[in-house]
Amino acid sequence: MDMNSLIYEKVLVGLIENGYIVLKEALSKEMQNSLYKIAVNTNMYKQAGISSSNEKHIDNSKRRDKILWLDKDGSSVDEYLDFCEGLSGYLNRELYLGLNSYEAHFACYEEGDFYEKHLDSFSKNNTRIVTTVFYLNPEYKDSDGGNLVMYDKKANKLLSVAPKGGTLVVFLSDKFPHEVLPTYKKRYSIAGWFRSDVR
Length: 199
Prior knowledge:
Elements: H1 3-17, E1 20-23, H2 29-41, E2 46-47, E3 66-69, H3 76-95, E4 101-109, E5 115-118, E6 128-135, E7 148-151, E8 157-161, E9 168-172, E10 178-180, E11 187-195
Antiparallel strand pairs: 1-9, 2-3, 3-4, 4-11, 5-10, 6-9, 6-11, 7-8, 7-10
């Protein structure tokens, strides 16, 4: 069994047992470092918006990160998107989720940035089925902040994930409210969503 297949199986078990999983050093250090360099060196970021419907708007009191949507471009972005496409096919075969697309963006959090508690899937727009977050910073300490904090629907805290490079978080989009705590150091990640656009 190759490395991707091992990761896919771990994700599957995590989603079945808990609805989420956190995997450290999930992908190769080479891919992580290459993605990090791309994220750091681009100047194409735009302020992220918020939405609970089909209309998005900027609200810096709730969310302050900047984003850049990903498309295949011949770089290591292709390798990452291929990994995610493989995971989508695996989850469809094992869980019959009906996933038919994947969207992802680089996220840049400057010092002091945060994202208030939210769900990735909404009652009026529930096409996001599974969320992925892959952290890119090669050096990140607990004191640097910016943790991902996940809750259950009763607002009980489930876990706090430090955004250390190589960590992959996967969870069901409609089950877990989550937030990004204020950062004390610029940090980069890739946030993505497996979608079922026929729901």
